[in-house]
């Protein structure tokens, strides 16, 4: 008999590829220091001065209870409700917002509130690699469903065919990690119509978890529609870590769609405190809560990200790389030369260039590049991208 719970073992199996990659990557960087690190969305330059100023300002106590226990502080939740109302065009209220430790905490809160043991959650493939382990701990089942192979749109037919009487949540990640796809209002409306019909068919409500941590990182003036605008049974998770390029600041929230029928809306509102406590006091640290208005007004340089996007797309394209043009996020997604992303990543690693192989996303033919690398890193890495591509053709 195992010492640990089966759910913990299931979570470990789900995240094993990521853990293995991260362990090997960390060891490799120690031996071959990075010329360019395109793996995780970590900062490669000093933090934004405005972020540092906000943290310093709000770390200075202004009352004896400055560092007392915090929950969903009314001032912060009221501010975020107003900010979301302006951004998404929906009438959010203070009680619709639950402050969490990043998007991770918000997703955990959603799973705790909505999932029973044995429930199923549909997630996009390729997609973020942590849903499965979180679902395993919740006693639920991850059901990966491929996106449309042509353009990474939602494949409504594939989603529909994957729905069973146990389906409880469909994850919609927009802008999408790793491809950068942003789903249109028409596409989301078609999904909403299908889920409404399927909910009636199975006699049980199917929810959308709208995973939106990259919502404010968009290119070319492309707009954004949240699934919450077209499907009332939607919960939104958000993280400040992306727009601030400060993932170590664990600040986010879970928001209830204000179009949800009032009785259900109030039921979820009433659960906020209890679920956050059950999830391990899933509330950000006090200074981060105080700093929310300042941090909400801060952003990394989207113009610089767009410039790096164009530089890499142009260079890689001329060497034969088949890349997807991202509409949002700070990633590029493309096909590895020869179709073996692990071998491709290993070749680059020999030169101190680190990319994330698509095998982490269950797409072993592809790879991801993070645009948070500096301009100098990109220029230093490009000759090695060229050499690997030419070696493959040769």
Automatic annotation (TrEMBL):
This is Aminotransferase. Residues 37-382 form the Aminotransferase class I/classII large domain. Its cofactor is pyridoxal 5'-phosphate. Belongs to the class-I pyridoxal-phosphate-dependent aminotransferase family. InterPro entries: Aminotransferase_I/II_large (IPR004839), NHTrfase_class1_PyrdxlP-BS (IPR004838), PyrdxlP-dep_Trfase (IPR015424), PyrdxlP-dep_Trfase_major (IPR015421). It is an enzyme of class 2 (transferase). One of its GO terms (molecular function) is pyridoxal phosphate binding. Keywords: Aminotransferase, Transferase. Its EC number is 2.6.1.-. Transmembrane segments: none annotated.
């Amino acid at each position: 008999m195992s010492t640990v719970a089966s759910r913990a073992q299931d979570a470990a199996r789900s995240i094993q590829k990521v853990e293995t990659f991260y362990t090997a990557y960390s060891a490799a960087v120690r031996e071959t220091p990075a010329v360019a690190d395109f793996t995780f969305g970590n900062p490669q330059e000093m933090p934004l001065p405005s972020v540092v100023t906000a943290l310093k300002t709000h770390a200075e106590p202004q009352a004896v209870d400055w560092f007392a226990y915090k929950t969903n502080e009314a001032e912060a939740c009221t501010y975020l409700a107003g900010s979301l109302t302006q951004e998404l065009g929906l009438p959010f209220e203070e009680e619709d917002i639950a402050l969490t430790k990043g998007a991770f905490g918000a997703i955990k809160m959603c799973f705790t509130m909505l999932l029973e043991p044995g429930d199923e959650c549909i997630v996009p493939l390729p997609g973020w690699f942590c849903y499965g382990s979180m679902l395993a701990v919740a006693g639920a089942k991850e059901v990966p469903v491929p996106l449309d192979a042509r353009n990474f749109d939602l494949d409504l037919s594939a989603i529909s065919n994957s729905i069973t009487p146990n389906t409880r949540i469909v994850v919609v990640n927009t802008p999408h990690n790793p491809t950068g796809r942003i789903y249109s209002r028409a596409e989301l409306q078609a999904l909403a119509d299908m889920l409404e019909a399927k909910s009636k068919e199975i006699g049980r409500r199917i929810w959308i978890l709208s995973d939106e941590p990259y919502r404010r990182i968009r290119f070319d003036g492309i707009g954004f529609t949240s699934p919450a605008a077209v499907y009332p049974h939607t919960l939104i998770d958000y993280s400040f870590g992306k727009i601030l390029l400060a993932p170590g600041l664990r600040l986010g929230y879970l928001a209830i769609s204000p179009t949800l029928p009032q009785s259900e809306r109030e039921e979820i509102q009433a659960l906020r405190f209890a679920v956050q406590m059950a999830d391990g006091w899933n509330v950000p640290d006090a200074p981060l809560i105080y700093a929310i208005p300042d941090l909400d007004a801060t952003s990394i340089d989207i113009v610089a990200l767009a410039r790096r996007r164009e530089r890499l797309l142009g260079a890689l394209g001329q060497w034969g790389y088949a890349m997807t043009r991202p509409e949002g996020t700070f990633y590029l997604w493309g096909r590895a030369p020869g179709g073996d992303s692990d071998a491709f990543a290993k070749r680059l690693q020999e030169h101190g260039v680190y990319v994330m192989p698509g095998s982490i996303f269950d797409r072993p033919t592809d790879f991801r590049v993070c645009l948070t690398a500096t301009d100098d890193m990109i220029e230093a890495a490009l000759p090695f991208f060229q050499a690997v591509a030419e070696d493959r053709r040769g």
